[in-house]
Design a protein that fits this description.
The chain has helices at residues 15-21, 35-41, 53-58, 62-68, 86-99, 110-122, 127-134, 189-193, 197-216, 222-244, 248-268, 272-284, 288-303, 317-329, 338-348, 365-370, 374-377, 386-395; strands spanning 27-29, 47-51, 75-77, 103-108, 147-151, 163-168, 171-176, 184-186. It has 399 residues and is α/β, with parallel strands linked by helices. The strands form two sheets. A six-stranded parallel beta sheet has the order 1-8-5-4-2-3. Strands 6-7 form a two-stranded antiparallel ribbon.
Protein backbone atom coordinates (compact mmCIF):
# COMPACT_ATOMS: atom_id res chain seq x y z
CA UNK A 1 0.00 0.00 0.00
CA UNK A 2 1.15 3.61 -0.44
CA UNK A 3 2.16 5.84 2.41
CA UNK A 4 -0.61 8.29 3.27
CA UNK A 5 0.38 10.92 5.80
CA UNK A 6 -1.35 11.81 9.04
CA UNK A 7 -2.13 15.47 9.67
CA UNK A 8 0.43 17.13 11.93
CA UNK A 9 0.49 15.82 15.49
CA UNK A 10 3.27 18.01 16.81
CA UNK A 11 0.88 20.47 18.45
CA UNK A 12 -1.12 17.75 20.23
CA UNK A 13 1.36 15.10 21.35
CA UNK A 14 4.74 15.12 23.15
CA UNK A 15 7.77 15.24 20.88
CA UNK A 16 8.98 11.77 21.92
CA UNK A 17 5.63 10.27 20.91
CA UNK A 18 5.74 11.93 17.49
CA UNK A 19 9.31 10.73 16.93
CA UNK A 20 8.25 7.18 17.75
CA UNK A 21 5.38 7.31 15.26
CA UNK A 22 7.79 8.31 12.51
CA UNK A 23 9.56 4.95 12.90
CA UNK A 24 6.69 2.44 13.02
CA UNK A 25 6.75 1.52 9.32
CA UNK A 26 2.97 1.90 9.25
CA UNK A 27 0.97 4.60 7.48
CA UNK A 28 -1.63 6.71 9.25
CA UNK A 29 -4.89 8.38 8.29
CA UNK A 30 -6.89 10.57 10.65
CA UNK A 31 -10.38 9.77 9.33
CA UNK A 32 -12.39 6.80 8.09
CA UNK A 33 -13.70 9.19 5.43
CA UNK A 34 -10.37 8.65 3.65
CA UNK A 35 -10.64 4.85 3.31
CA UNK A 36 -11.80 5.07 -0.29
CA UNK A 37 -8.78 7.07 -1.38
CA UNK A 38 -6.44 4.32 -0.14
CA UNK A 39 -8.43 1.62 -1.91
CA UNK A 40 -8.29 3.57 -5.16
CA UNK A 41 -4.56 4.18 -4.86
CA UNK A 42 -3.98 0.46 -4.42
CA UNK A 43 -6.44 -0.55 -7.13
CA UNK A 44 -8.57 -2.49 -4.65
CA UNK A 45 -12.27 -2.61 -5.42
CA UNK A 46 -13.69 -5.62 -3.54
CA UNK A 47 -12.92 -5.25 0.20
CA UNK A 48 -14.17 -7.50 2.94
CA UNK A 49 -15.24 -5.06 5.68
CA UNK A 50 -15.07 -6.61 9.16
CA UNK A 51 -17.04 -4.19 11.31
CA UNK A 52 -18.22 -3.71 14.88
CA UNK A 53 -21.55 -2.11 14.03
CA UNK A 54 -22.31 -1.11 17.63
CA UNK A 55 -19.08 0.85 17.92
CA UNK A 56 -19.62 2.58 14.59
CA UNK A 57 -23.26 3.38 15.39
CA UNK A 58 -22.34 4.70 18.82
CA UNK A 59 -19.85 7.03 17.14
CA UNK A 60 -22.54 8.29 14.72
CA UNK A 61 -20.26 7.29 11.85
CA UNK A 62 -22.38 4.70 10.04
CA UNK A 63 -23.21 7.16 7.26
CA UNK A 64 -19.54 8.13 6.95
CA UNK A 65 -18.49 4.50 6.51
CA UNK A 66 -21.15 3.92 3.89
CA UNK A 67 -20.21 7.09 2.01
CA UNK A 68 -16.48 6.33 2.10
CA UNK A 69 -17.06 2.88 0.59
CA UNK A 70 -19.97 3.70 -1.72
CA UNK A 71 -17.91 3.24 -4.88
CA UNK A 72 -16.70 -0.24 -3.94
CA UNK A 73 -18.15 -3.74 -4.02
CA UNK A 74 -18.06 -4.50 -0.30
CA UNK A 75 -18.81 -7.68 1.58
CA UNK A 76 -19.69 -6.92 5.21
CA UNK A 77 -18.87 -9.25 8.09
CA UNK A 78 -19.88 -8.79 11.73
CA UNK A 79 -20.36 -12.35 13.03
CA UNK A 80 -17.92 -12.43 15.94
CA UNK A 81 -18.09 -12.47 19.72
CA UNK A 82 -15.91 -10.72 22.37
CA UNK A 83 -13.58 -13.72 22.60
CA UNK A 84 -13.33 -14.76 18.93
CA UNK A 85 -13.17 -18.44 18.08
CA UNK A 86 -11.45 -20.30 15.29
CA UNK A 87 -14.90 -20.97 13.79
CA UNK A 88 -15.60 -17.23 13.65
CA UNK A 89 -12.23 -16.57 12.07
CA UNK A 90 -12.93 -19.32 9.54
CA UNK A 91 -16.30 -17.80 8.64
CA UNK A 92 -14.59 -14.46 8.02
CA UNK A 93 -11.95 -16.11 5.83
CA UNK A 94 -14.70 -17.97 3.96
CA UNK A 95 -16.52 -14.68 3.42
CA UNK A 96 -13.37 -13.14 1.94
CA UNK A 97 -12.85 -16.10 -0.36
CA UNK A 98 -16.49 -16.24 -1.43
CA UNK A 99 -16.46 -12.55 -2.26
CA UNK A 100 -13.12 -12.83 -4.07
CA UNK A 101 -11.97 -9.99 -1.83
CA UNK A 102 -8.85 -8.12 -2.86
CA UNK A 103 -8.42 -6.38 0.52
CA UNK A 104 -9.70 -6.36 4.10
CA UNK A 105 -10.80 -3.41 6.20
CA UNK A 106 -11.32 -3.68 9.97
CA UNK A 107 -13.39 -1.10 11.87
CA UNK A 108 -13.82 -1.87 15.55
CA UNK A 109 -12.11 -3.07 18.71
CA UNK A 110 -9.45 -5.70 19.27
CA UNK A 111 -11.78 -8.61 18.60
CA UNK A 112 -12.85 -7.14 15.28
CA UNK A 113 -9.25 -6.52 14.26
CA UNK A 114 -8.16 -10.03 15.24
CA UNK A 115 -10.90 -11.60 13.12
CA UNK A 116 -10.04 -9.28 10.23
CA UNK A 117 -6.38 -10.29 10.47
CA UNK A 118 -7.32 -13.94 10.12
CA UNK A 119 -9.55 -13.14 7.15
CA UNK A 120 -6.71 -11.24 5.50
CA UNK A 121 -4.22 -14.01 6.24
CA UNK A 122 -6.33 -16.92 4.96
CA UNK A 123 -8.90 -15.25 2.70
CA UNK A 124 -7.10 -16.23 -0.52
CA UNK A 125 -6.79 -19.92 0.39
CA UNK A 126 -8.95 -22.98 -0.20
CA UNK A 127 -11.33 -24.24 2.47
CA UNK A 128 -9.01 -26.88 3.94
CA UNK A 129 -6.10 -24.46 4.18
CA UNK A 130 -8.32 -21.81 5.75
CA UNK A 131 -9.51 -24.25 8.40
CA UNK A 132 -5.95 -25.26 9.27
CA UNK A 133 -4.72 -21.66 9.52
CA UNK A 134 -7.67 -20.54 11.65
CA UNK A 135 -6.94 -23.35 14.08
CA UNK A 136 -3.34 -22.20 14.52
CA UNK A 137 -1.69 -24.17 11.72
CA UNK A 138 1.32 -23.09 9.70
CA UNK A 139 1.10 -19.73 7.95
CA UNK A 140 3.84 -20.49 5.45
CA UNK A 141 3.20 -20.11 1.72
CA UNK A 142 0.09 -17.97 2.21
CA UNK A 143 -0.82 -14.96 0.07
CA UNK A 144 -2.40 -12.52 2.56
CA UNK A 145 -4.72 -9.73 1.45
CA UNK A 146 -3.75 -6.12 2.21
CA UNK A 147 -5.24 -4.96 5.50
CA UNK A 148 -6.36 -1.53 6.71
CA UNK A 149 -7.47 -1.11 10.35
CA UNK A 150 -9.49 1.53 12.19
CA UNK A 151 -9.46 0.78 15.94
CA UNK A 152 -12.40 1.92 18.06
CA UNK A 153 -10.92 1.11 21.48
CA UNK A 154 -7.78 2.47 23.12
CA UNK A 155 -6.13 -0.55 24.59
CA UNK A 156 -5.50 -3.75 22.67
CA UNK A 157 -2.98 -2.23 20.26
CA UNK A 158 -4.05 -4.84 17.70
CA UNK A 159 -3.72 -2.29 14.91
CA UNK A 160 0.03 -2.16 15.67
CA UNK A 161 0.79 -5.86 16.00
CA UNK A 162 1.28 -8.98 13.94
CA UNK A 163 -0.77 -11.13 16.33
CA UNK A 164 -4.35 -12.35 16.41
CA UNK A 165 -5.80 -13.82 19.61
CA UNK A 166 -8.17 -16.66 18.71
CA UNK A 167 -9.81 -19.30 20.92
CA UNK A 168 -9.18 -22.80 19.55
CA UNK A 169 -11.20 -25.52 21.29
CA UNK A 170 -11.71 -23.21 24.25
CA UNK A 171 -8.05 -22.26 24.66
CA UNK A 172 -6.71 -18.84 23.75
CA UNK A 173 -4.02 -19.01 21.10
CA UNK A 174 -1.89 -16.20 19.72
CA UNK A 175 -1.43 -16.59 15.98
CA UNK A 176 1.53 -14.64 14.65
CA UNK A 177 2.56 -13.57 11.17
CA UNK A 178 4.25 -10.28 10.32
CA UNK A 179 2.00 -9.97 7.27
CA UNK A 180 -1.03 -9.57 9.56
CA UNK A 181 0.26 -6.22 10.76
CA UNK A 182 -1.95 -3.60 9.06
CA UNK A 183 -0.15 -1.51 6.48
CA UNK A 184 -2.52 1.43 6.98
CA UNK A 185 -3.98 2.46 10.33
CA UNK A 186 -6.88 4.89 10.60
CA UNK A 187 -6.62 6.75 13.89
CA UNK A 188 -10.02 8.43 13.89
CA UNK A 189 -10.59 10.04 17.29
CA UNK A 190 -14.36 10.03 16.71
CA UNK A 191 -14.41 6.24 17.03
CA UNK A 192 -12.71 6.44 20.43
CA UNK A 193 -14.91 9.23 21.77
CA UNK A 194 -17.88 6.86 21.97
CA UNK A 195 -16.23 4.23 24.19
CA UNK A 196 -18.33 3.50 27.30
CA UNK A 197 -16.45 4.09 30.54
CA UNK A 198 -16.29 0.36 31.31
CA UNK A 199 -14.60 -0.41 27.99
CA UNK A 200 -12.30 2.60 28.29
CA UNK A 201 -11.25 1.32 31.72
CA UNK A 202 -10.55 -2.28 30.71
CA UNK A 203 -8.85 -1.52 27.40
CA UNK A 204 -6.92 1.33 29.02
CA UNK A 205 -5.57 -1.06 31.62
CA UNK A 206 -4.59 -3.46 28.87
CA UNK A 207 -2.59 -0.70 27.16
CA UNK A 208 -0.91 0.37 30.40
CA UNK A 209 -0.01 -3.23 31.20
CA UNK A 210 1.44 -3.75 27.72
CA UNK A 211 3.70 -0.74 28.11
CA UNK A 212 4.88 -1.78 31.57
CA UNK A 213 5.39 -5.46 30.75
CA UNK A 214 7.24 -4.53 27.57
CA UNK A 215 9.79 -2.58 29.59
CA UNK A 216 10.81 -5.58 31.70
CA UNK A 217 10.28 -8.36 29.11
CA UNK A 218 13.15 -10.61 28.12
CA UNK A 219 12.27 -9.66 24.53
CA UNK A 220 12.76 -5.95 25.24
CA UNK A 221 14.90 -4.01 22.76
CA UNK A 222 16.02 -0.39 22.64
CA UNK A 223 13.28 0.33 20.12
CA UNK A 224 10.49 -1.42 22.07
CA UNK A 225 11.60 0.36 25.25
CA UNK A 226 11.35 3.71 23.47
CA UNK A 227 7.82 2.92 22.32
CA UNK A 228 6.82 1.56 25.73
CA UNK A 229 8.16 4.47 27.75
CA UNK A 230 6.66 7.15 25.49
CA UNK A 231 3.32 5.37 25.26
CA UNK A 232 3.23 4.38 28.93
CA UNK A 233 3.80 7.90 30.21
CA UNK A 234 1.08 9.21 27.90
CA UNK A 235 -1.34 6.55 29.14
CA UNK A 236 -0.51 7.19 32.79
CA UNK A 237 -1.30 10.88 32.29
CA UNK A 238 -4.63 10.45 30.53
CA UNK A 239 -6.12 7.11 31.62
CA UNK A 240 -8.20 8.36 34.55
CA UNK A 241 -9.67 11.39 32.73
CA UNK A 242 -10.26 9.24 29.63
CA UNK A 243 -12.43 6.91 31.71
CA UNK A 244 -14.04 9.35 34.15
CA UNK A 245 -14.47 12.47 32.00
CA UNK A 246 -14.29 11.09 28.45
CA UNK A 247 -13.09 14.49 27.23
CA UNK A 248 -11.77 14.82 23.71
CA UNK A 249 -8.21 15.62 24.75
CA UNK A 250 -7.71 12.63 27.02
CA UNK A 251 -9.37 10.23 24.57
CA UNK A 252 -7.09 11.53 21.79
CA UNK A 253 -3.97 11.03 23.92
CA UNK A 254 -5.17 7.62 25.07
CA UNK A 255 -5.68 6.54 21.46
CA UNK A 256 -2.05 7.28 20.61
CA UNK A 257 -0.60 6.03 23.92
CA UNK A 258 -2.33 2.69 23.45
CA UNK A 259 -1.07 2.51 19.88
CA UNK A 260 2.53 2.95 21.03
CA UNK A 261 2.03 0.30 23.72
CA UNK A 262 0.93 -2.01 20.92
CA UNK A 263 4.04 -1.13 18.93
CA UNK A 264 6.16 -2.01 21.97
CA UNK A 265 4.50 -5.33 22.68
CA UNK A 266 4.71 -6.30 19.01
CA UNK A 267 8.48 -6.40 19.49
CA UNK A 268 8.97 -7.48 23.09
CA UNK A 269 5.90 -9.74 23.58
CA UNK A 270 4.02 -10.05 26.86
CA UNK A 271 5.03 -11.57 30.21
CA UNK A 272 3.54 -13.27 33.27
CA UNK A 273 0.59 -10.93 33.92
CA UNK A 274 -0.74 -11.58 30.43
CA UNK A 275 -0.15 -15.31 30.86
CA UNK A 276 -2.20 -15.28 34.07
CA UNK A 277 -4.88 -13.07 32.54
CA UNK A 278 -5.92 -15.65 29.97
CA UNK A 279 -6.94 -18.03 32.74
CA UNK A 280 -8.85 -15.30 34.56
CA UNK A 281 -10.74 -14.41 31.40
CA UNK A 282 -11.38 -17.94 30.22
CA UNK A 283 -12.42 -19.40 33.57
CA UNK A 284 -14.10 -16.43 35.25
CA UNK A 285 -15.13 -14.05 32.48
CA UNK A 286 -13.00 -11.14 33.69
CA UNK A 287 -12.37 -8.67 30.85
CA UNK A 288 -8.88 -9.11 29.48
CA UNK A 289 -7.37 -5.73 30.36
CA UNK A 290 -8.82 -5.86 33.86
CA UNK A 291 -7.50 -9.40 34.30
CA UNK A 292 -3.97 -8.34 33.35
CA UNK A 293 -4.00 -5.36 35.69
CA UNK A 294 -5.06 -7.45 38.71
CA UNK A 295 -1.64 -9.14 38.90
CA UNK A 296 0.60 -6.41 37.46
CA UNK A 297 1.42 -4.81 40.82
CA UNK A 298 2.44 -8.03 42.60
CA UNK A 299 4.38 -9.09 39.50
CA UNK A 300 6.36 -5.83 39.51
CA UNK A 301 7.34 -6.44 43.13
CA UNK A 302 8.31 -10.04 42.35
CA UNK A 303 10.33 -9.14 39.27
CA UNK A 304 12.27 -6.59 41.29
CA UNK A 305 13.67 -9.47 43.36
CA UNK A 306 15.30 -11.14 40.33
CA UNK A 307 18.77 -12.46 41.12
CA UNK A 308 21.33 -14.79 39.56
CA UNK A 309 19.43 -17.89 40.69
CA UNK A 310 16.13 -17.05 39.01
CA UNK A 311 17.00 -14.72 36.12
CA UNK A 312 15.53 -15.51 32.70
CA UNK A 313 17.15 -12.59 30.90
CA UNK A 314 20.62 -13.17 29.40
CA UNK A 315 21.44 -9.52 30.18
CA UNK A 316 21.55 -10.50 33.85
CA UNK A 317 19.77 -9.71 37.10
CA UNK A 318 21.20 -6.23 37.48
CA UNK A 319 19.85 -5.22 34.06
CA UNK A 320 16.48 -6.76 34.89
CA UNK A 321 16.16 -4.79 38.11
CA UNK A 322 16.94 -1.63 36.17
CA UNK A 323 14.25 -2.50 33.64
CA UNK A 324 11.70 -3.12 36.39
CA UNK A 325 12.57 0.24 37.97
CA UNK A 326 12.03 1.91 34.61
CA UNK A 327 8.69 0.16 34.20
CA UNK A 328 7.51 1.36 37.62
CA UNK A 329 8.65 4.88 36.77
CA UNK A 330 5.89 5.02 34.14
CA UNK A 331 3.55 5.45 37.12
CA UNK A 332 6.06 7.59 39.05
CA UNK A 333 6.53 4.89 41.65
CA UNK A 334 8.83 2.04 42.68
CA UNK A 335 8.36 -1.69 42.13
CA UNK A 336 7.70 -2.23 45.84
CA UNK A 337 4.92 0.35 45.75
CA UNK A 338 3.37 -0.91 42.52
CA UNK A 339 0.79 -3.23 44.18
CA UNK A 340 -0.74 -0.30 46.06
CA UNK A 341 -0.50 2.09 43.11
CA UNK A 342 -2.24 -0.36 40.77
CA UNK A 343 -4.90 -1.08 43.36
CA UNK A 344 -5.63 2.64 43.72
CA UNK A 345 -5.68 3.15 39.96
CA UNK A 346 -8.16 0.32 39.44
CA UNK A 347 -10.37 1.84 42.11
CA UNK A 348 -10.21 5.29 40.49
CA UNK A 349 -11.50 3.96 37.17
CA UNK A 350 -14.28 1.90 38.72
CA UNK A 351 -12.88 -1.62 38.47
CA UNK A 352 -12.61 -4.22 41.25
CA UNK A 353 -9.07 -3.87 42.55
CA UNK A 354 -8.39 -7.41 43.78
CA UNK A 355 -9.03 -10.98 42.71
CA UNK A 356 -11.38 -11.31 45.67
CA UNK A 357 -13.44 -8.31 44.59
CA UNK A 358 -13.50 -9.68 41.06
CA UNK A 359 -15.33 -12.73 42.39
CA UNK A 360 -12.60 -15.37 42.37
CA UNK A 361 -12.57 -17.80 45.27
CA UNK A 362 -9.29 -18.22 47.09
CA UNK A 363 -9.61 -21.98 46.61
CA UNK A 364 -9.23 -21.47 42.81
CA UNK A 365 -5.82 -19.79 42.92
CA UNK A 366 -3.77 -22.99 42.80
CA UNK A 367 -5.79 -24.19 39.82
CA UNK A 368 -5.11 -20.93 37.96
CA UNK A 369 -1.38 -21.08 38.73
CA UNK A 370 -1.11 -24.64 37.44
CA UNK A 371 -2.81 -23.78 34.13
CA UNK A 372 -0.60 -20.92 32.91
CA UNK A 373 1.01 -21.11 29.47
CA UNK A 374 4.74 -21.72 30.09
CA UNK A 375 5.74 -20.06 26.79
CA UNK A 376 4.72 -16.61 28.01
CA UNK A 377 6.40 -17.24 31.35
CA UNK A 378 9.67 -17.67 29.47
CA UNK A 379 9.51 -14.00 28.47
CA UNK A 380 9.15 -12.88 32.07
CA UNK A 381 12.54 -11.71 33.41
CA UNK A 382 12.20 -13.67 36.64
CA UNK A 383 11.56 -17.43 36.52
CA UNK A 384 8.27 -18.30 38.17
CA UNK A 385 7.27 -21.86 38.99
CA UNK A 386 3.75 -22.94 39.92
CA UNK A 387 4.35 -22.36 43.63
CA UNK A 388 5.58 -18.82 43.00
CA UNK A 389 2.66 -18.08 40.67
CA UNK A 390 0.30 -19.26 43.39
CA UNK A 391 1.98 -16.90 45.86
CA UNK A 392 1.78 -14.03 43.36
CA UNK A 393 -1.96 -14.65 42.93
CA UNK A 394 -2.39 -14.83 46.70
CA UNK A 395 -0.76 -11.41 47.00
CA UNK A 396 -3.25 -10.06 44.47
CA UNK A 397 -6.19 -11.68 46.21
CA UNK A 398 -6.93 -8.73 48.48
CA UNK A 399 -6.33 -5.07 47.72
Amino acid sequence: MPTPTYDTLADRLPADVVRCLEDTEQSYLNSIDRMGSVLKQTHCSRPLVVIDRRAVTASNLSANVQAALADFDCQWFDEFTPNPTSDEALRAANAAAGHRADSVIAIGGGTCLDVAKMAALAGSENADRQRDVCRGGSTESLSPLPLMAAPSTSGTGSEATQFAAIYVDGRKQSISDERMRPAVVIMDARLHAAMPASIAACTGMDALSQAIESLWAVGRTEISARYAHAGGRLIAECLVPSVCKADEGSRFQMMWGAHLAGQAINISKTTASHALSYQLTQRFGIAHGHAVALTLGPLAAANATTDATNCNDPRGAEAVCGHVDQAASVLNTTPAQMPGVMSDLLRQIGLPNSLSEAGIGENRLAEIAASVDPVRLGNNPRRLDTTELHELLRRGYTA
